[in-house]
Design goal:
5-stranded parallel β-sheet, alpha/beta
Length: 182
């Protein structure tokens, strides 16, 4: 069974690292009764290495190939909340596949919010650099235009994960129809 664009048979969370895709995804899945899947966790389980180890041993291109395979495998089913890696959407074929197989929701945060969340992280291979903040900024500038092509964009600055979930549910649940007038 394949979801047509605009139907939320699957909910796919995209966005930069540190926007809260995994945290929000788990809460959202619980609230709506879907199964939560995080592509990075699936890759780590299948390969038996952490994401930084995969980057170090095989490189980013190999990781992106694994990511593409996992996305295609997971989205053969419906009723999934999928949290993708921050760079998954940079492959146009991946982005199109995601857009065709669920409601794609980009979680968006300001550069300052992201830096506060990421500056102490030691497990983000895309930030391994002499100047991680500059690296983050340039990656964000490159990726954000793609994120903004999602079906919906949800800002996360200053919101708790629960508030972000509330925002997503307000977007995906059909409005009207259940209202009773006295």
């Amino acid at each position: 069974m394949e979801a047509r664009s605009g139907e939320c048979n699957n909910i796919i969370l995209i966005g930069f690292m540190g926007t809260g895709k995994t945290t929000v995804g788990k809460l959202l899945a619980q609230r709506i009764g879907y199964r939560f899947v995080d592509t990075d966790q699936v890759i780590e389980q299948e390969v038996g290495l952490s994401i930084p180890e995969i980057f170090l041993k095989y490189g980013e291109q190999h990781f992106r190939q694994l990511e593409k395979q996992v996305i295609r495998k997971v989205l053969t089913r419906t009723g999934i909340v999928l949290a993708t890696g921050g760079g998954a959407v940079m492959d146009p074929a991946n982005f199109s596949f995601l857009m065709e197989n669920g409601c794609v929701i980009a979680l968006d945060a300001s550069e300052n919010t992201l830096w506060e969340r990421l500056k102490a992280a030691k497990d983000r291979p895309m930030l391994f650099s002499d100047n991680p903040r500059e690296k983050m900024k340039s990656l964000l500038e490159m990726r954000r235009p793609v994120y903004y092509k999602a079906h919906f964009v949800v800002p996360v600055d200053g919101k708790s994960p629960q508030e972000v979930v509330d925002d997503i549910i307000a977007i995906i649940e059909p409005q009207g129809g259940d209202e009773h007038t006295e």
